[in-house]
Amino acid sequence: MTSIDHTRATVEQLAEFDTIIDARSPAEFAEDHIPGAINCPVLDDEQRIIVGTLYKQASPFEARKVGAVLVARNVANHIETYFADKPKNWKPLVYCWRGGQRSGAFTHILREVGWSAKRLQGGYKSWRHHVIEQLGSLPQALRFTVVAGPTGSAKTRVLEALERLGHQVLNLEALAQHKGSVLGDLPGQPQPSQKMFETLVLAEVSRFDPARPVFVESESKRVGQLRVPDAVFQGIQSGNWVRVQASMEERVQFLLRDYDYFLSGPVLEQQLDRLKELCGGETVSRWKSLAASKEFATLVAELLSQHYDRFYLRSLNNHAEASTPQATFVAQDLSVEGIEALARAIGAAAS
């Protein structure tokens, strides 16, 4: 008869715990972690390398001796720093990579103190399997309303306004920390890892009510360097598309405001070089000259008409739903008030 291990828990039991402790190194934690977890490494990045090197070059025994001392010191420091005030009924869950020695040692010490600590069965790997499995199924139950429109029609700002109005919104560009275009890098904000992006997407789709529409922007398969999960991308492709229309003048003025940090920054000309293959060296040289002379309105208008609008029209031709949207909303202006009005109209039509 198999006995039940009362010191272990599953991914399905995460909500039962007061604190989720990630015992992995800071580098592992930074790549991806369970939402809400705190990082209390039993071995930091440097220590993990030291122990791993000993394991390979000396012996597992020597590695364990050194590792045990480091783990004991680190866990003691975490208890003194973070957990000394926790009551006896505090329930923490600890996980490491596979649910093995690192989380096992941490959990054992916490239980010796008297807390009802458990470790995650299978560790982070079981969480990662859960993310992949859920991202393959949950988006299929959702009804996506896809906000489409050419670059500069304030689609992301419309999504943000829809969210403020209480609608369900999946803002992939916010999660990916990227504006989606070839010039969409955000200054000082590197994109998350692919694994972290998928964890963030799952956290969003898990909270949605399938009976209500989920608003999302029309996206390509990638947002910057990150891939949109397959089931989400398929949901966008098969969703109800609505189109935003705005004049060229309004789009230019909106982009001058929305990309102000970029147009006035030092990297614009360098980023324009990324368009050489698509637009030709001569055209890019002209755009760099416009940037150098701060003729930003002309630059943005030419980028839209000669690059972005061409790709937008191509995407319409490749997608029947996009070429015949459920509804078209004409923006009178793309000011803050105009975007709010646009969001109210789109939200009312989709509800």
CATH class of the largest domain: Alpha Beta
Order of helices and strands: EEHEHHEHEHEHEHHEEEHEHHHHHHHEH
Oligomer: single chain
Count up the domains: 2
Low-pLDDT segments? none
- Helical fraction: 40-55%
**SS elements, strand count:** 12
Strand arrangement across the biggest beta sheet: 1-5-4-2-3
Q: State the shape.
A: elongated
* Helix/strand structural class: alpha/beta
Instruction: Name the average pLDDT.
Output: 92
The N- to C-terminal Cα distance equals 55 Å
Strand content: 5-15%
Give the count of helical stretches: 17
Can you walk through the features of this model?
- With 351 residues, the protein is α/β, with parallel strands linked by helices.
- It folds into two domains: 8-132, 3-Layer(aba) Sandwich (Oxidized Rhodanese, domain 1); 142-350, Rossmann fold (3-Layer(aba) Sandwich).
- Helix content is 52%, strand content 12%.
- It has 17 helices and twelve strands.
- The chain has helices at residues 26-31, 45-57, 60-83, 101-113, 123-137, 155-164, 172-176, 194-205, 230-237, 248-258, 260-263, 268-272, 276-279, 281-292, 296-317, 320-323, 336-350; strands spanning 8-9, 19-22, 38-39, 92-95, 118-120, 143-148, 168-170, 213-217, 222-223, 226-227, 240-245, 327-330.
- The chain has a five-stranded parallel beta sheet. A five-stranded parallel beta sheet has the order 7-8-6-11-12, with helices on both faces.
- Strand 9 (222-223) and strand 10 (226-227) form a beta hairpin.
- Helix 3 (60-83) packs across helix 4 (101-113) and helix 10 (248-258) packs across helix 15.
- The radius of gyration is 25 Å and the shape is elongated.
- The model has no long low-confidence stretch (mean pLDDT 92).
